[in-house]
Amino acid sequence: MTETPDACPLWCAADHSDPDQVWHTSRDIQVPAPGTAADTSGPLLSAALTTAIDLPHVFGTRSRLVVDTGRGVLELDVAQTDQLIANLTRFTTRLHNLRALLAVAVESDIPGDQAAIEQWHREFDARIAARDHAPQT
Ligand SMILES: [Zn+2]
């Protein structure tokens, strides 16, 4: 049996009319991905504060920052959250540095030759077809 405290914390956005909702949960914060990639969906990162409140007189309560990395879910305490913030801050600094290098690098980029690209694809497809139809040895 689930016991839900009468009052949610101010940050709780959960719908406790659902008897299976045994967590206080904040709204997600997200790092959206600019652009799109065929093999990914959703934000790069999302995070929410949660507090488990199922049978608190038995199990107590447990608050964690839940971070969805897209590759897995982290449940962080305060010290681990501080470490994540430090890691993200270092990443952001390095990202600024790479952005500056990118801005210089794109100045040297040259456009492709569309006719040459199409010729390359025709020759590539012909090599694949020749390999696929070659006699087995
Ligand atoms: Zn709540």
Question: How would you characterize the overall build of this protein?
Answer:
- The structure is a single chain.
- With 137 residues, the protein is α+β, with helices and mostly antiparallel strands.
- It has two domains: 1-76, no CATH class; 77-109.
- The protein has three helices and five strands; from the N terminus they run E-E-E-H-E-E-H-H.
- The chain has helices spanning 56-59, 78-108, 114-132; strands spanning 23-25, 29-31, 45-52, 62-68, 73-76.
- Strands 1, 2, 3, 4 and 5 form a five-stranded antiparallel beta sheet that branches.
- It is elongated, with a radius of gyration of 26 Å.
- The model has no long low-confidence stretch (mean pLDDT 90).
- Bound molecules: zinc ion.
- Zinc ion is lined by residues 8, 12, 14, 16, 24.
Please give a handful of descriptors for the protein shown.
alpha+beta, binds zinc ion, 5 strands, 137 residues, 3 helices, 39% helix, five-stranded antiparallel beta sheet, elongated
Q: What's the helix and strand layout?
A:
Layout: E1 23-25, E2 29-31, E3 45-52, H1 56-59, E4 62-68, E5 73-76, H2 78-108, H3 114-132
Antiparallel strand pairs: 1-3, 2-3, 3-4, 4-5
Bound molecules: zinc ion (ZN).
Low-confidence segments, given as residue ranges, are: none
Q: What ligand species are in this complex? A: zinc ion
Percent helix among the residues?
25-40%
The beta-strand count equals: 5
How much of the residues is beta strand, in percent?
Answer: 15-25%
Query: Helices and strands: which structural class?
Result: alpha+beta
Q: Main β-sheet, in a few words?
A: 5 strands, antiparallel
Order of helices and strands: EEEHEEHH
The gross shape turns out to be elongated
Mean pLDDT: 90
Radius of gyration: 26 Å
Number of domains: 2
Could you tell me how far the N terminus lies from the C terminus, measured between alpha carbons in angstroms?
A: 68 Å
Q: Helix count? A: 3
